[in-house]
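Just wondering, can you check both lines?
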Amino acid sequence: MTPISSKSGQCFGPAWLLLAALLLGAATATVAAAQNEAVTQQQSLRTEADLVKLDVSVLDRHGNFVGGLLQSQFRVLDGALDQPIVAFAPVEAPAQVLVMVETSPAVYLIRNEHVTAAYALLQGLAPDDAVALVAYDQTPRGLLNFTTDKSALQSALGKLQYTIGMGQLNFYDSLSAVLDSLAPMSGKRAVVLLTTGLDSSPPERWDALVRKLRSSDVVVFSVGLGRSLMQKPTDKSKPKQKAAPATGGTDEFERADRALSALATMTGGRAYFPRSAKEFVPIYHEIASALRHQYILGIAPARDGQLHSLVVKVRDPAGQSEKRSAKEPKYRVLAREGYLAPEP
């Protein structure tokens, strides 16, 4: 599929990212050497035909990245079976982050809250992380190509145009098109969704999207806007009360939330459902931390054409983190939950 084009007629593609990488490499010799080594490690894992690559983020109970972990502290389970980790690299390499924003009439009601808080995501990203912006309702629209200029994304977010009326929301197809545009790129790739998750397409579109994600290593972080929308007061002079959503009923929002959770979990990301404006900022800070710092694990794939469920676990130095407290877990591990094995 042709990459999603921006209004300038450019498109998201590897050529632009290569140019950005060359420019960023001029920062300092020491930093450049370290980043080149990390990227080389990561790309070697990605291109190795006999490996399943897992991008793993390990966060503490406060949402901060846990660094300094060793390969011996990780376990990868395929069902109940341990899978040997045959490749390992702690990577702090530039990320390519595509922000995908729903521009429906419903989201228009809370635009000031979530768009303003989205600036926290920009503040949390590193200077050499590249960002891009896509808006969608019936179709996706590329508004900003990948750039390390975070002020460009801030400006683009402030100029979002929202639809009016009761137009269709083709969320699944729009995300599918975005994944196609990211497919030729190498390195760390993530999509941050700012959306209600509502979709008016047939059920088979969901199945097609899931199949595509199972075959991809793009990480999805979902920020569900439905709950904050339902909490928005109708009049600031009155006590807070639930406002009727501009589109979709309560049951539809609940189904959408489940879909957003599934999309994030299956890719190794996380879904967030803020209920108020103050919850957006810590969410975006945590996403930025998870994107920047990762461990790359490689396991040998099965060759049976089946879907394999994976669980990544982390031991602390004493080997005791398998027994987690239900109330206060030591680590939060974000990793894709499975892969589609090649045919025999």
